[in-house]
Specification:
By secondary structure, the protein is α/β, with parallel strands linked by helices. It is built from 25 helices and 9 strands. The protein folds into 3 domains: 9-73, no CATH class; 100-433, no CATH class; 451-574, 3-Layer(aba) Sandwich (Rossmann fold), CATH 3.40.50. It has helices spanning 27-41, 44-57, 59-99, 109-121, 125-128, 140-148, 156-182, 184-196, 198-204, 210-230, 233-249, 255-266, 274-288, 290-297, 301-313, 322-331, 333-345, 352-370, 383-396, 409-433, 451-461, 473-483, 509-514, 525-530, 532-544; strands at residues 9-10, 13-14, 19-20, 23-24, 468-470, 487-489, 520-524, 548-558, 564-574. The chain is globular, with a radius of gyration of 30 Å. The termini are far apart.
Length: 578
């Protein structure tokens, strides 16, 4: 600082104002003194107006104030900004991929069910008959959707914005978890991988329970790591509470307790005090008990039991190799390779950290591989752990002995490997958020093309009170949500043990059509691709009862020959009894 100090006098008070290059450096003192004089006479609002007037009369005051603030706070703020800039950029990329064209395609069946349940919670009586509040799962996620609607049924964008924001939050938690395990650089790499991972991007763009479950599970894993470091009871209780929230998001997260049990059983170095364990279990029970208590108070205690029995004894929907053929490509073959290669390459350094992540991933993979019902998104909770292990490998490339021959080679290898990994993920993710039209559909991979348009047509043209008969419950749920009309499904079994308790079967569709119970029949290519029998039965009923196509959705799809063809994906027929 150069220059001298001036000594201006204000009333009875004398102020020493330093000079910097001939200008007042502490203009903030002048502003504060002005404000104090005004406050003594008027209220705070007038003080603010006085400061604004002073700034308008002398702009140099504001410039000087900013300069002074930067000189005082810059040395402390600048390192913080530099440290936060990478994760801020990663978060921005994660948000872009999850919010880009969020409503380009309408809801799929599961999305329609959860959004419809949220609408029922918000008081939409027109949907409550089709989407009751108490259905197959706990209601934590559906409550968040209802809150997002501000007391009204959530819009399509608002409903999807909730899981998208949850997905972005999961990326941040993965950064914290990776940083706690392997340092900030590994945490950044792991968060960057998760931010562009197709598996996580696709699922977190949908109105599904698994995104919130994954966020809570990852936060619980972070708390377990903090407990392993500190042995403080608070962290184990926090882990128990957040795991309870994960169960309230989706009950299948109870499988993750098996991973934690395996970790503590196989890791004698991390000893859990009996009192700590008992209190953590009590915390989990207290949180999870909310769901059965609410069911009991609502008089729907049998609802959860019916759904549990159905899930346990329903037929398998995919083969035992489903996850080994579908999920690795969705997670990224480069990510899986990097994670496994790091475990082998750094095997001498493997300890309780790697054992924790491996147990966390191995138990759900083994369980759902043998469980008859397999959903594309069921293994989402393992994605953050896989990303962190891959980030660990990329971080340690700099220390590879084979790269030590040239000073620049280790850093270059890290940069090239990281960019190649991220690019191999980002390109498929971009393709997923800008999907090409197709006539087939895998549940959990995105919206149902044409479903929203068909539902809008139903709402506008099908008379109130009319009912529709569809090939399967997937298209039926979508048409009910968008169309506001009851839609039954041919493929719903008449055996109570073999059907979703929320669905009503049609024991004799011929009799129902002759009696005039249904005025419209719906065929869709998505059901036809996986249940040809019911698609053919739909065609038979259309032909028998003089069906006339009144609405058709077509898409340009890639045929088996490799050529693009225009094919129908949803056709609504108006039928009449003979």
């Amino acid at each position: 600082m150069t220059g001298t100090a001036s000594r201006p006098t204000r009333g009875d008070a004398t102020y020493v104002v330093p000079r910097v290059n001939g200008h007042d450096a502490t203009h903030a003192m002048v502003l504060l003194s002005d404000a104090s004089e005004v406050v003594a006479q008027t209220d705070r609002d007038e003080a603010i107006q006085a400061i604004r007037a002073r700034l308008a009369a002398d702009p140099a005051v504001g410039v000087g104030w900013l300069r002074t603030a930067w000189l005082r706070l810059g040395p402390e703020v600048l390192p913080l900004l530099v440290r936060l800039a990478p994760i801020a950029g990663i978060t921005a990329v994660a948000a872009f991929l999850r919010f880009w064209q969020l409503t380009a395609v309408g809801f799929n069946s599961d999305e329609a069910v959860y959004a419809g349940t949220a609408a029922s919670i918000a008081g939409d009586q027109s949907l409550r008959a089709m989407f009751p509040v108490f259905r197959a799962h706990p209601l934590l996620f559906q409550l968040l959707l209802a809150i997002a609607g501000h007391g009204h049924p959530p819009s399509e964008w608002a409903a999807r914005a909730v899981p998208a924001a949850i997905g972005v939050a999961t990326v941040v938690v993965a950064y914290l978890l990776g940083g706690r395990l392997y340092g900030r650089t590994a945490g950044r790499f792991g968060a960057a991988i998760l931010a562009v991972m197709p598996y996580h991007v696709v699922v977190s763009r949908q109105v599904l329970l698994d995104g919130l479950m994954t966020l809570c599970a990852t936060a619980a894993l972070y708390c377990v790591v903090r407990y392993a470091h500190s042995k403080r009871l608070l962290w184990l209780l926090s882990a128990g509470g957040v795991m309870g929230l994960s169960v309230l998001a989706k009950e299948t997260s109870v499988v993750l307790f098996g991973g934690l049990y395996a970790f503590f059983a196989l890791t004698p170095a991390i000893r859990v005090r009996l009192r700590h364990l008992a209190l953590a279990v009590v915390t989990v029970v207290l949180v999870v008990t909310v769901h059965p208590v609410v069911l009991s108070m609502a008089g729907r205690a049998s609802t959860g039991q019916n759904y549990l029995l159905w899930q346990m004894f329903r037929r398998s929907n995919h083969g035992p190799d489903f996850y080994f053929t579908v999920v690795p490509a969705a997670v990224g073959l480069s990510v899986v390779t990097a994670a496994l290669a790091g475990l082998v390459w750094l095997r001498r350094e493997n300890g309780w950290r790697e054992r924790l992540l491996l147990c966390w991933m191995a138990v759900p993979v083994a369980f759902f591989s043998f469980w008859p019902v397999k959903g594309y998104q069921y293994l989402l909770p393992i994605a953050p752990s896989m990303a962190i292990l891959a980030g660990r490998t990329l971080t340690r490339l700099r220390g590879a002995p084979v790269l030590a021959r040239r000073r620049w080679l280790p850093r270059a290898a890290v940069v090239v490997a990281t960019l190649a990994t991220l690019l191999s993920l980002a390109l498929p993710s971009w393709a997923q958020v800008n999907p090409a039209p197709t006539g087939t559909f895998l549940a959990g991979t995105g919206g149902l093309p044409g479903g929203r348009e068909a539902g809008d047509w139903v709402r506008a043209h099908v008379p109130a009170g009319a009912q529709l008969l569809a090939s399967g419950p997937s298209i039926a749920n979508v048409l009910e949500f968008y169309g506001g009309r009851r839609v039954f499904a041919l493929s719903v079994s008449t055996n109570p043990n073999s059907r979703n308790p929320a669905y009503v079967p049609v024991p004799n569709p011929d009799h129902a059509l002759r009696a005039g119970q249904f005025q419209y029949v719906v065929w869709d290519s998505y059901t036809a691709a996986r249940a040809k029998f019911f698609a053919d039965e739909t065609r038979r009923l259309v032909d028998k009862y003089h069906g006339v196509a009144v609405f058709t959705i077509t898409r340009t799809v890639r045929a088996g020959s490799g050529h693009d063809v225009v094919a129908p994906v949803i056709v609504i027929y108006q039928v009449r009894a003979t």
